[in-house]
Predict the 3D structure of the following.
Amino acid sequence: MDKQEIVRELQRVARETGKVPGWKRFQDETGIRYYDWFGKHWARWGDLVQEAGLTPNQLAQKYPDEFLIEKLVRLTIAIGKVPAKGDVQLAGRRDPDFPYASMERLGRKSEVAHKVISYCEDHPEFSDAIPLWLVFASKQIPGASFEGDTDEVGQHGYVYLVRHGSRSEYKIGRTNNPLRRDGEIAIELPEKAEPVHRIKTDDPAGIESYWHNRFKDKRKNGEWFQLNSADVAAFKRWRRIH
């Protein structure tokens, strides 16, 4: 492995974590093995640290949480799912500016989910990431850290969007049998009910709650909302949320 590449990786890890790592932590974070540098470029770890312009007690500047959250949100949207630890590490290897080694500072899974959802709610341009993180949050094991994949729980169902005739009134609901539910809704309405779209998910209650909350300012009554074409298009962008 190239000597300067090893130096750059050490500098990056020190910058992201706020401290100079030992060689074992460096190996875990980068995949650069002990014998990639020992006896090949340097005789001891301290020589590598010194050449990188670092000292063992030197603290690097830490990234603010908001910066880390935005990186995580952008990655979520890019891959279409909540990133697992492997996705985060892979992003760090592909992009030197992606601070994957600092993500653990955001806390446990439930804390990360809360921070991400709050951030996206304050930044509408990232709202498409919210349903994925809502499902993620519903699958957490209490006390688990943000290091592994989510756990599969729950049964599959659907969150549907139905239009009331020619009106701009839409019902957002959930069901395990969309065809039967379409028929039931049609019986309830004076005008023809037009099924618009449905999202398959293993967390129907959570995803339904998300859309109800997203359009809460447009609620007419119950599960009926006054939606425009942009709102409908946003709903129709999703086919599966797992």
Notes: The chain is about 45% helix and 15% strand. The longest strand covers residues 193-201.
